[in-house]
Amino acid sequence: MSPARKENSGVTAEEKEAVKAWRREVQAARKGKLDPAEAENEVLGAIAAMAPEDRALAEKVHQLVKAAAPGLQPRTWYGMPAYAKDGKVICFFQNAGKFKARYSTLGFSDKAQLDDGTMWPSSFALTKLGPAEEKWITALVRQAVG
Predict the structure, then answer these.
(1) Domain span holding position 79
(2) What pTM was computed for the model?
(3) C-alpha separations of 98 from 13, 64, 66, 114, 120 in Å
(4) CA-closest candidate to residue 104, choices 112, 96, 115, 114
(5) Which is nearest to 58 in space by CA: 72, 67, 48?
(6) CATH number at residue 29
(7) Per the structure, how many domains does the chain have?
(8) pLDDT (tens digit, 9 = 90+) per residue, 70-119?
(9) How far apart are the C-alpha atoms of 90 and 120, rounded to whole Å?
(10) Of 104, 122, 105, nearest in space to 113 by CA
């Protein structure tokens, strides 16, 4: 593929970096390099690299998820903080700066047990966290892990 074609692919630099991060994560998993302590350090490193507002949200989400579901394993997923059960991502935090978005999100994969009828939310916009939001996140995470 020519350089001109790559530039016009419609894929942003941020999206390309996320895919590269995902490839590194997959390669590490295949090599058996998913040490839980190292994986959590990678999550903490991803959080530390965020802009201050995103970092504050991510740190709180990290605390809430760990308290609500201590069995979930922190890891990165496309370079974002994520939490997995049996190697499958259940939920993740995407900071606003990651893709130059208006707000950060707390997302849930299809492995999360959030089913409610024929339609339910799987991603939640976060701009700040107060006691009500913290309670809601805790309940969502607990439901997600089943």
Answers:
(1) 3-145
(2) 0.83
(3) 10, 21, 22, 25, 25
(4) 96
(5) 48
(6) 3.90.1150
(7) 1
(8) 999 999 999 999 999 998 999 999 999 999 999 999 999 999 999 999 99
(9) 15
(10) 122
